[in-house]
Structures are given as C-alpha cells and as structure tokens.
Amino acid sequence: MTIKFALSRLRAQLANQHNDDSRTDVAVISALMDEIAGDRSDGTAAAIEARQHRRTGYTFPHSQALRNALDTVSDDLAAR
Question: Average pLDDT by consecutive 10-residue portion of the chain (80 residues)?
C-alpha cells in the first residue's frame, strides 16, 4: 500500500466525522498529499496544524486510526 493510497483512505474515513479536530486531520492530509504532488508549497500542512493548535490545542494526528496508520508507514520505511 502506498503512502498516498493510505492517506486517501484515511481522509475518506475521517471526512465522515463531525468534529473540528477530525476535519483538521482531513485538511492536513489533503495538504500533505498536495505537497507530495507539488501542488502546494512545503509547509502548508504545518501551517494548517499550527492555526488549529492556536485555536483548540490540536496536534496532528488527532485520530487514533490515523496515528496508528502513520506509525505503521513510519515503521515500514525504517525497515528499508
């Protein structure tokens, strides 16, 4: 599974949740995907996270499922 596919799947799952932090997870994932594709400048996702953190204390990732998925990807990359 590619990182982009995993992020797309998690973004779709989180989009159905109705709280600000879950929506911010979706926005950060979208920005990360755009940064990877070269459609947005580096740091866009970090700026979204920082703005929400100032408002609510948010830290990325908010969702436990997303945290687990990113840990798995991180472990896979470290094993290479």
Answer: 76 70 87 92 94 90 84 69
Residue 47 vs residues 6, 27, 35, 43, 78: alpha-carbon distances, Å: 22, 11, 12, 6, 26
Rounded Cα distance, 43 and 61, in Å: 16
pTM of the predicted model over 0.70: no
- Cα within 13 Å of Cα(65), Cβ side: 12
Instruction: Report how far residue 3's alpha carbon sits from residue 73's, in angstroms, rounded to the nearest whole number.
Output: 7
Query: Residue 73: in which H helix or E strand, if any?
Result: helix 64-79
